[in-house]
Design goal:
Rossmann fold; binds ligand L263DTV3; eight-stranded mixed beta sheet; four-stranded antiparallel beta sheet; 368 residues; 12 strands; HAD-like_sf; single chain; alpha/beta; stress response; OTSB-like
Length: 368
């Protein structure tokens, strides 16, 4: 799993970059993006004061290390690791595209795509994390040639509303809600031949408890300006991107106070978000395995899964691929961080370029 230090660096650096953006541009971008709810967020970003470690804020609790690590000054790889070594071990999937294509040659490519931070840039308002039409076209193009799945922390309904492509497989709620394409849109599995629809919900029994905790967290967070609780059906997200850092400790304590009463739920941290989900042996890696099996690739060595993601939760899928010794994981990041992925891409625009190249390489002979 990636360490908190590496993981959090990107957010902090983005905040630092925002601070040096000309004020007029920054204000226009913020105004276009943020609703009333996010005024706190704009204020913090404009002041460039999201660098908690730099500000010397000390907050007790499990977020503290992670917040401290958010500073680029503190961001580091594991002890002994060096950046050149990291770049050599995790080269750009674009610069090394020919190597990727050569490794996939003669194999059937299956594409797995995370959503936030991979297909859409990270924005302050989670409800406005739209993907561009260009990106949608790139994904549509890929899905024409290869089975393609979206694997997201969001609920299926939410992520579908952003992606809007019926021909894809969707694994929402961090893989705990899986749905294949409709029969009409399905190209790749055996539904057309009368096979069963691809569907899996391993956390079904947790639905009532998740709903209960959603209500409690919403009430608890109501007094924290900028906090947002998102219901992702089988898991919950408590966003603190727009919460003033002086309130992060209160938010952390409030979330933990609610979760303490639910030993079947666990808490983890994503990109300026706390995630609450069932204690269940199921993650994005299991979703990847389930989908490969549903597509008939279990035990076959002529399959080449490509998984692209930016989040700590995507590491579970990268590990599965590493253990299988098949396919590649591609981490979307601008900064070195610990990862099991083999390659990197810097941002969603590079993901789009990579997807386009993949389609082009198909017409040049890669089996898929
Ligand atoms: O697995 P993913 O598709 O990457 O989903 C992970 C979380 O993504 C969303 O939050 C993140 O993106 C937001 C929009 O850019 C951003 O405002 C937030 O700070 C990020 O953490 C989503 O809202 C969460 O529910 C997902 O769990």
């Amino acid at each position: 799993m990636t360490n908190h230090a590496g993981f959090a660096a990107e957010d902090a650096a983005a905040a630092a970059a925002a601070a040096v953006t000309p004020p007029s541009q920054a204000a226009a971008a913020a105004a276009a993006q943020a609703g009333k709810h996010f005024s706190t967020c704009k204020k913090a970003a404009a002041a460039g004061n999201m660098d908690l470690a730099g500000a010397g804020v000390t907050i007790p609790g499990f977020l503290l290390d992670s917040m401290r690590a958010s500073s680029p000054r503190h961001a580091k790889l594991a002890a002994g690791a060096d950046i050149d070594d990291w770049l050599e071990k995790h080269p750009s999937a674009l610069a090394w595209f020919e190597s990727v294509a050569a490794a996939a040659n003669g194999k059937e490519i299956v594409v797995f795509l995370d959503y936030d931070g991979t297909l859409s840039p990270i924005v302050t308002d989670p409800d406005r994390a739209f993907m561009t039409d260009d990106m949608r076209e790139a994904v549509r193009g890929v899905a024409k040639h290869f089975p393609t799945a979206i694997v997201s922390g969001r609920s299926i309904d939410k992520v579908f509303n952003f992606v809007k492509l019926e021909e894809l497989y969707y694994a929402g709620s961090h893989g705990m809600d899986i749905k294949g394409p409709t029969a009409a849109a399905s190209e790749y599995h055996n539904m057309k031949k009368g096979g069963a629809a691809v569907t899996r919900q391993p956390a079904l029994e947790f639905l009532p408890v998740i709903e209960e905790v959603y209500q409690s967290l919403t009430a608890k967070m109501a007094s924290i300006k900028g906090a947002l609780v998102e219901n992702n059906k089988f898991c919950l997200s408590v966003h603190f991107r727009c919460v003033d850092e002086s309130e992060w400790g209160v938010l952390d304590a409030g979330v933990r106070a609610v979760i303490e009463g639910y030993p079947d739920l666990r808490l983890s941290k994503g990109r300026k978000v706390l995630e609450i989900r069932p204690v269940l042996d199921w993650d994005k890696g299991h979703a990847l395995q389930f989908l490969l099996k549903s597509l008939g690739y279990e035990g076959r060595n002529d399959v080449f899964p490509i998984y692209i993601g930016d989040d700590r939760t995507d590491e579970d899928a990268f590990k599965v691929l590493r253990n299988m010794g098949q396919g590649i994981g591609i981490l979307v990041t601008k900064f070195p961080k610990e990862t099991t992925a083999s390659y990197t891409l810097r941002e969603p625009s590079e993901v789009k370029e990579f997807l386009r190249k993949l389609v082009k390489s198909k017409s040049n002979g890669t089996k898929g």
